[in-house]
Structure formats: C-alpha cells, structure tokens
Amino acid sequence: MAQEIQTLFNEAVRLERNGELDRAESQYKLLLEKDPNYHLALQNLGVVYAKQGKHAEAIPLFSKAHKLHANVKNSYNLAVSLYKHEETEKAISFLKQTLTFEKKFISAHLLLAQAYQKLGNDEKTEVYLNNVIKIEPNHKSALGGLAMFYYERNRFPESLKMIERYLILYPGNAQLKIIQSEILAKQGNYKASATLLSAMVKEDVGFTNFNESLQAAWKEEDEVVHESLVRIQSKAKLKLKEFQTKLELSKENPEEFSPPDAQEALDLSLLYLFNGNPEKAMQYLVFAQKMKEKTEPDRLS
C-alpha cells in the first residue's frame, strides 16, 4: 500500500511540474481516496487549485494539511488563499503563524503589509514593509511600496529618500520618476523638478501609454505600490476632467477664467504625464517655468 501511494504521488508531482494540472488533480484525488490524510497530497492539490485561482477549493485542503502537519509552507499557502478569497483577518493570523516558523520569510512580511493596507492599518503596513527592508535592504517591492506609502501620506522627505534608493538600484521606472518630480516641486525645488520632467518627457517612452507601463512595471508582489499608483492615476483623471470642464466653460465666459499660476501649471503638467499626453505636459511645464521665473528670478538663476 505504501509503495502504491508513493507511486501515485510521484506521478502526480511529475504531471504538476509538466503543467498538466487536470491530470495532476485527478492523480492527487485518487491518492487521497486511498489515504485521506496524506498531507503532501493535500498540500499539492491545494496548490493545483490555487494556481488556477480556485482558492475556495484550495482553502479546505491547505487547512487539513496544516492541521495534520503545521509548517511554514502549509501556513503560508493557507494564508495566501485566504487573502485571495478576501478573508483578510484569517490570512493575517496564518501569516503571523508562518513567521513563527521562519521569522525572516520575506513573502509573509510583504503579504502582511498588503493585508494591513487593505484593512487601512497604516501603522502595521509600514512596520511590515520596513521589516522587509531590514531583512533585505535593496528589496525592490518594499522600497517601491514604502516610497508610495509615504507619498500618499504627505511624508515627502521619506518618500523621496525611498524613490532615490529605488531608482539608483532599479533605474528607468517612469511612474516613480513622476512622483519624484512632484515631490521636488512640493518641497520648493522647482528647478530640479522642471529639469527632471523635461528629461522624462523627451526621453522616457513610458509616458506614451501610462496604463500599459503601469501594468508591465509591477509584479503581483508589488501590490502596495501598484495600488497606490492606480489611486493616484484615478485622482489625476478626475482633476484633469475638472480642469477641462473649466476650460470649456471659459470659452463661454472668458472674463471669469483666470489662467493657472506656476504651481497649477506644474500640477497640470504632471496630470497630463499620468494620463499619457507628453506634448500637453511639456506645454504646461514650459508655462510653469516661465511663470516661476517671473515671480522668483533669483531662485531659478
């Protein structure tokens, strides 16, 4: 019997590794009919379901495997499927249990940050992102996540520091360059912001289609930074729509329309960048720079 079980398991693993998930599923089920408590088969069948997004089916399998043999893998797999199934509080519980087995398990820290962000717990989100940095100082997802976490909470010096670290290690991210430019402007370093924007508009192809570059730039583990950028872009679209409505109304009542000041023009430049219109972005950038030069000539000299 033991030899038969092992043979079935080996064949199921082979099928799974070859990507034959339907056949692997059948093989694992056949094995579990003969031995319902074979925890490795429970665990692997759960993985087969999870790979297909069938987390409702995966959860009871991971749960039973965990009860039979609690370890880092079973705890984490169960936590991931619970998180994907929108059972965030339960996911957090098993992620913390995962860390009792392996304190420096980076994926668990990252998912805890994502889970706490989903629950709106800023303190815990920051703690777990920083935990990743302590374990691996150059971790791409954690650096990007902290950069956007600080930015959305107007903690601009901390955000800028993380963005600079990120771009030194992983250059070429157009979205973070836009955020970097905006922070510089908010801090009053207009010349540096304008110089950076000018270079980006001329050189970075990422602005031509922000949506596509946003999807391509971030992996699933980058959920914290990705969701932040999606929120920022959504706000940018609303602001741009408001300005365009105001512009249309001004054609009917031009005497009631006042042109944007330097900061408003810079904001509009950034909005157009986020919405994939580098030509308009450059127009407002040039306008903003001219306005600023008139009002603060010494600062830009």
Automatic annotation (TrEMBL):
Repeat recorded as keyword: yes
TPR repeats: 39-72, 106-139
Domain of life where this protein originates: Bacteria
Membrane-crossing residue ranges in chain numbering: none
The entry's keywords: Repeat, TPR repeat
Keyword ATP-binding belongs to the record: no
SMART domains recorded: TPR (SM00028)
SUPFAM superfamilies linked to this entry: TPR-like
The protein, known as: Anaphase-promoting protein
Organism whose genome encodes this protein: Leptospira harrisiae
